[in-house]
Design brief:
Elements: E1 8-9, E2 16-21, H1 32-40, E3 44-49, H2 62-79, E4 85-87, H3 99-112, E5 116-119, H4 135-152, H5 159-162, E6 173-177, E7 184-187, H6 192-200, H7 203-208, H8 219-228, E8 236-243
GO biological process, one term: glycoside metabolic process
Organism: Prauserella sediminis
Keywords: Zinc
């Protein structure tokens, strides 16, 4: 569990961010409020998703789910000011940590040249309890940390240079959304409503959850208030920050 230390303010002296997560809805369950604030400030944020979320709705065939969830993710991103959403087409539910995943993420980093990389919580558990984090999240998070270094080294994945993707060593921080070891936060007082609206765009996914607690987007308000206890009492979005 996270300690009770006060959360520091996330760095703001950057212009471009790349968010790399496993599934549609991952950002909406953690970082969308911060993304909305950043895009309002004129910063550029791009979303790259490892999968199309095809295994995420029990009552819907994967082929149909992939189409629906891609559409919902693009709509959700638009709510918080993100226009570019990419899908890497790894298999939902069985993402493997390894060179193919690292190479695809390194390519995205070289393509978009971010200063800040936002990623999935890679820890074994979630904040506030012993709930196990799924392998897709852990594997994408770890691969993202490694891909930041891969993207900076011209002798790793040399075929990327043949594709016109020159090395990029300009990543200054990696920030993990919803980590149980959060260190920093963003005040989302003015964008919390947008975060809720962004999650609501995942209508088919939320309907598929039935009466589960995370099917009601309003729970984001409680999570933001809880994070704010360690951040001056304002609604907040937490991150574990890794300087690079």
């Amino acid at each position: 569990m996270a300690d009770s230390a006060e959360l520091e303010i996330m760095p703001g002296d950057w212009n471009r961010a790349l968010a790399v997560v496993a599934h549609p809805d991952d950002l909406e369950y953690g970082g969308a409020g911060a993304v909305a604030r950043w895009t309002r400030e004129g910063k550029s944020v791009v979303y790259t998703l490892a999968t199309r979320g095809e295994a995420g709705i029990d009552g819907m065939a994967p082929e149909e789910s992939a189409v629906v969830r891609e559409r919902e993710q693009i709509a959700a991103a638009r709510v918080v000011g993100v226009d570019t959403v990419e899908f890497l087409d790894h298999a939902d539910g069985v993402i493997e940590y390894g060179l193919p995943l690292r190479r695809d993420i390194a390519a995205a980093i070289r393509r978009h040249r971010p200063e800040l990389v936002i990623m999935t919580n890679h820890r074994d558990t979630w904040p506030g309890g012993p709930w196990l984090n799924m392998a897709d999240h852990r594997n994408v998070g770890l691969a993202t940390l490694d891909a930041v270094r891969d993207a900076a080294n011209r002798w790793v994945f040399r075929e990327l240079i043949d594709d016109g993707l020159e090395p990029w060593d300009g990543v200054r921080w990696v920030a993990a959304v919803a980590s149980p070891q959060a260190t920093h936060a963003v005040d989302i007082t003015d964008t919390l409503d947008l975060a809720v609206d962004s999650l609501r765009e995942h209508r088919a996914y939320l309907d598929g959850l039935g009466d589960a607690s995370m099917a009601d987007p309003s729970f984001l308000r409680e999570a933001a208030a809880e994070a704010g206890v360690r951040f001056g009492g304002v609604p907040a979005c937490e991150f574990e920050l890794f300087p690079m």
